[in-house]
Structures are given as C-alpha cells and as structure tokens.
Design a protein that fits this description.
about 350 residues, alpha/beta, eight-stranded mixed beta sheet, two-stranded parallel ribbon, 11 helices, about 40% helix
Length: about 350
C-alpha cells in the first residue's frame, strides 16, 4: 500500500486509543475521518475534551453531522452509532476510506456482567455493519480492536496468537473473539483484508476512568483506599499508549494477502489462506500489580491505602503478550518504561483536572 497519504476512517475517536491514533495519523499527513457515538459508559466530558484537543468544537457536534477540525485541516469528526447502518453506509459512500481502523466498542470486562445486551448491540451488530460497509464500499484494509481477554482460561505464557483461544471468561471477551471469526468469514468470502489486534492493558494520558491507573490515581489523591484484587498477586502487560499507536499505524499500512502455506489439516488460528491475520499488541514485559502501584505512589508522592480483595469474576491473574509476529512485520518495539509512562499520566492528570477545577 502507498504510504504517503491514505484516507482513514477511525471509529472510537472520542475514546482513549482512538484519540491518540488520530493525533498520530493527521500529523503523518493522512486524511482522517473520526467517528464516535459519545455514550455515557464513563464521563462524556472527558470524551468531549479529547475531541476539543483535536480541534472538534463541542457545540458543532450533532448526530450524523461532519465537523471539520479547527486544528487539523486533514481531520473531521462525525457523531454516529455503528448500529446505524444507513448512516454508516452514507459515510463510507461520501468519504471512500481506504483503511478502516475500528476501535469503537463497548469496553469493560466487569460491565459486561451486568449489561450483556449492550455488548451485543455495539460489539456484534456494530461490527457486522462495519464489515458490510467494507464489503459494499471496498477498502484496502480493515484493522479492528480485539482483546487479550480472549485468552480467558489459557495459562501458557506468553500468550501466543498461534495457540487456541476458545475458553473466554467474560461476555466482553466472547464478543471480541466473535469479531475475529466474523472478520475471517468476510476475508474468506469477499477478499476483505482484515487484521485483528489483541490489545493488552493500555495506559497513558487521556486514559479511561474505569481503568486501574485512573481509578488508583483518583483515590490515592483523595486519600481513599484502592481495591487491589487477587490480594495484589496479579501481573499485567501494561503498554504505554504512544507505543500502541505506533504499532497500530504501522500495521494499518500493511494489509495481509493470505498465506499460501496455510494448512487446513493443521490450522494456524492467527493466519489463513484468506487475507486475514491476528496479532498481539502489547509490551511483552509483564509488571506485577504491586510494582505498578509503587511506581504510581512515587509519581504522586503519596502512599496508597490498600484494600486487598479476592479475584473478580471475569478477570484473570496474569497477561503477557508474545508480540514477535508484530515485531517481524513492522519493527514494533515498545520503548516506554512503566515508571516513565506513569509519570506522564500523572502530569496530564494533574494538569487536566487542575484546569477543570479552574474552569468551575
């Protein structure tokens, strides 16, 4: 694929990773259309603030309306639900994206225990509409967010895309695994090049308030206890958002062509004879949760009050990404230490909420 100027459609651009990906792509000179429904799963004010940081004025936003960025001449945003097939098809017809990066989804493992139908609407019906739009208005590459959650009960570390992942422990993970299977069928039937990225724990400035780093920071600064599950005996493949975005952007310009050596009698789940692949994207250096908390205490200059608790339903004790395929394909090599990443997050957090308090 040509690499100078590509027409991108990125969904989920009021979200954490989508916001950062837009920044990267527009600065690289690509033409980007962003899409988000701006739901209230967490504070919409943070979502509007991310959009404002990208030059999208809140007062201009309306369902189905394309809003040009006041900051980037090569970026515009549309508020739209993925479940709105007519609106989505109209957007594809107008913008004719060459590459689609689908990051829009109902996130959160624990939320899926109490709001299961929300995940079916957004993650299954919404993704089906993306696939159908890519079929009706052919694209050069569809990249979509899967999740490390699909590994479920797998215990062999590091997690490999070439190993089966058939025992998920949450409906959220089920929807992400379903996306992978749906993508394969469309790659096989209609030749749509698809890449599923299994994201591990992403953190950094402008992050999600339901994630551990955000919650811990808020509570430590407020002098409140933090909930530490599995009594702190957990490991996560924490990955800084800038490293993640560089990997996503590199993969997006390298669509799969199908593997002629793929063997149906000994099938590799990460590849296919169709133009399809699955990749892990993480740090490949797991960090113990207690070490993560200590790094945060150091950055905040405050000690955490620990409320140690049993493992939560739907959770797993450890994650560790084998990213060797992604490294071979793109040269991907995350370089941000947890200490450095947490310091950057804390700096952003203090600045953002300090400004919010000043505005009040």
């Amino acid at each position: 694929m040509k690499k100078e100027k590509v027409r991108f459609l990125v969904t989920g651009t009021a979200g954490f990773i989508g916001f950062h990906l837009v920044q990267h792509l527009v600065k690289a000179g690509h033409e980007v259309t962003g899409l988000d429904q701006i739901n209230d799963y967490y504070d919409p004010e943070l979502k509007y603030a991310r959009l404002a940081e990208s030059g999208i004025r809140r007062e201009e936003i309306a369902k189905g309306k394309e809003v040009p960025s006041e900051k980037y001449g090569n970026y515009s945003f549309v508020q739209l639900d993925l479940e709105d097939q007519e609106g989505l098809f109209g957007l594809f017809e107008r913008k004719k994206p060459q590459v689609v990066v689908n990051l829009a989804a109902q996130a959160g493992v624990r939320y899926s225990l109490t709001h299961p139908y929300t995940y079916l609407d957004s993650n299954i019906v919404g993704f089906m509409n993306i696939l159908e739009a890519c079929r009706a208005y052919p694209v050069e590459h569809l990249v979509y967010a899967s999740s490390s959650s699909v590994y479920g009960l797998n215990k062999k570390m590091p997690f490999s895309v070439h190993a089966p992942a058939d025992h998920p422990v949450s409906l959220y993970a089920v929807t992400k695994k379903s996306n992978e299977m749906m993508a394969h069928s469309y790659s096989h039937l209609f030749g749509i090049p698809t890449t599923g990225l299994r994201f591990f724990t992403v953190y950094g400035p402008w992050g999600r308030p339901d994630m551990a780093l955000f919650l811990f920071t808020e509570r430590i600064l407020g002098g409140r206890p933090i909930d530490v599950y599995n009594y702190g005996d957990m490991e996560r493949d924490f990955t800084y958002v800038d490293d993640i975005v560089q990997g996503v952007a590199a993969v997006a310009l390298l669509p799969p062509a199908g593997d002629p050596q793929w063997d149906g009698e000994d099938p590799d789940p990460a590849l296919s004879s169709a133009p399809y692949r699955i990749l892990n994207i993480g740090n490949s250096r797991p960090v113990r949760l207690m070490d993560f908390i200590r790094a945060l205490e150091k950055a905040l200059g405050r000690e955490a009050i620990l409320n140690k608790m049993p493992m939560q339903a739907g959770d797993v004790p450890a994650t560790w990404a084998d990213v060797s395929d992604l490294t071979r394909l793109t040269g991907y090599k995350p370089g941000t230490s947890v200490e450095e990443g947490i310091e950057r997050f804390v700096e952003w957090y203090r600045e953002y909420y300090g400004r919010m308090n000043d505005d009040r």
